[in-house]
Please model this.
Amino acid sequence: MAETEIPECITEHERILQEIESTDTACVGPTLRSIYDDQPNAHKRFMEKLDTRIRNHDREIEKMCNFHHQGFVDAITELLKVRADAEKLMGQVTDTNRRLQEAGKEVTAQTEEIIRCRIQQRNMATTVEKLQLCIPVLEMYSKLKEQLTSKRYYAALKTMEQLEKVYIPRVSQYRFCQIMAENLPKLREEIKDISMSDLKDFLESIRKHSDKVGETAIRQAQQHRTFLSTVAKQAGLDHYTKPVYSLNGRAHSHMSNGLLMDAGDEEDAEDEILTAQDLVDFSPVYRCLHIYTVLGDRETFENYYRKQRKKQARLVLQPQANMHETVEGYRRYFNQIVGFFVVEDHVLHATQGLVTRAFTDELWNMALSKIIAVLRTHSSYCEDPDLVLELKNLIVIFADTLQGYGFPVSRLFDLLFEVRDQYNETLLKKWALLFREIFETDNYSPIPVETEEEYKVVVSRFPFHDAEIEKQSFPKKLPMSQSVPQIYSQVKEFIYASLKFSESLHRSSTEIDDMLRKSTNLLLTRTLSSCLQNLIKKPHIGLTELVQIIINTTHLEQACRYLEEFITNITNVSPETVHTTRLYGLSTFKDARHAAEGEIYTKLNQKIDEFIQLADYEWCMAESDGRASGYLMDLINFLRSTFQVFTHLPNNNNDHASMSGKVAQTACMSACKHLSTSLMQMLLDSELKQISMGAIQQFNLDVIQCELFASSEPVPGFQGDTLQLAFIDLRQLLDLFMVWDWSTYLADYGQPNSKYLRVNPATALALLEKMKDTSKKNNIFSQFRKNDRDKQKLVETVVKQLRSLVNGMSS
Model:
């Protein structure tokens, strides 16, 4: 077995040795590893085999060297022989070279000179060529400096662009070009800074010139509107054409009678119309816009410009604190705003995208809200209607001007309705003072007219027509006082003043008519009514004055239809129109007349109360004086003289007569009823504890005087004994006690035909209680002394029955 393995192992070692000999050394590792991986001690046998192979190769090398040694020795011998010849040849070459060098020194020197000249010539040509490339660059850079010096910045930027894109790249390898290229961005920034500085100066300048620009634009709008108004009148047009303005200061063409007319032609004889370009130099804006556009930073410029203009807009919209005091304050305010937006409109159309329509609309909406708030606040401070009217005119032309530039102004015309209310309020305050002054200076007596001229003057101021008075000869008196034509004239003046505000509002005649009627209604129902009510309540206004006031209000009431016609003639709007507002003067004057009548009744009653307070009855007197009390006679005399005022009123006009008669009758009846009630209250006063029969008799005398006064017809027109019925309660009560007819009273109580129907049981009981207490102390029934006990029982019985009736009524 071992013998069999040995040949196999030897064969394997041979294979490995051949592989080692024929294989690259990098691949020997796996081969050697296989030796160790085989049978144990195999590497020893391999090493032995390897030593044997090495010895074999050494023997072969030695054989080969021995075979070639003689040839090697011969070659060395021949080489030694050649060395001597080589040394000789080297000497000859060296000598030849030396002689050649000596002979070519002059040629070499000339050649080097030629080479040097050629190099110089080449360098000169190269220099000329490069200078030809550099000269345009230097010329362009010099041109750039000149442009910067002359402030031609836009051209300078174009030159920079050419330098960067065309010229400098050709000679970019030179230092001076690198310096130029490094300086160009700095120059651009310098141009940006300079142009921005110019823009800031422009913005500051435009802020100062906005007032002038706005004033010019407004003046042009006024001229244009005047022209259109003239053309419309000539052409018979009844509508208003909105003003439209162009940026060159000439209005757009309009048709008139089939011919094209240019609004600018109307001012041929006038000075040339100035425009925004004439008043403002916009070149800094254009220049700065172009510069930033070229530099690729247009968006930054646009944002900066818009931001600054927004700030300026806020400054322009900020009013002065005392702007409301004068019209000049409002005019400057509007001029500045118009100037601002005229400039923006010009920039909008003259530049592409610097400002957009959306931006101007945003600015305008912001400005419009601020303007409306400012005007609403400051107009509320105005108390002068003339100033408010001037403000309205300024707002209208302000709105028309900006509308011509395409800005929506409907909210401004809506604001005018608020300003109109403020205007009406100031007018009402002014006219309230006028009315009060008229009432204070009035003498409250009929107007005397001495001649026909005076009569015509009065009739021209007030629509008074009375056939009876016209037939009378001069001198004569008109029923109303001098305040009536004055009030009527002032109402017409108020309508004119109110109409002034309605002008140029672009409203229809119907709307103007409605505004006039509403404002006139306010004047009548609030201002004039208040003045009349205050006048009537004044303490110094007596009964005569109150009666005259009633007559005056009647005439003013009748004149309301003439005011209706007056407004209709102004507005040409038929009063039959469905939506036409009616004047409320009728109710105003009726209310004032009723208040005056009520005041007459009140003052009469107050005067009666004053006389009643003078009464000084001796309630325990045994017998009456036989004559009426002095205070009552004075009271009756006062009433007679007072009612004579009514009878002395002019009664030529049936309306006046019926009016004065009605007032007199009502006043007389009211006075008699109040007198009767006051006398009854005097008898039934809770503080009055005792009344004697003598006092009753004295009181009866006074009531008789009152009845005589009533029956004397102090005021004509009463039928029968109507006025005496005011004292019927007193009369029946006094008759009951004077006659002592208790049996009849008690028997007929509750019967419709009772003799003492108006005597209330409670009233009779209260008065009887006062007399019963007096009889106990003063023995009123002394003439019946023998029957004293029976009389006392009768009184007690009557009292019980009266109490029974009172209790029955209460239950």
Observations:
- The radius of gyration is 65 Å.
- The chain has 26 helices and four strands.
- The chain has a mean pLDDT of 78.
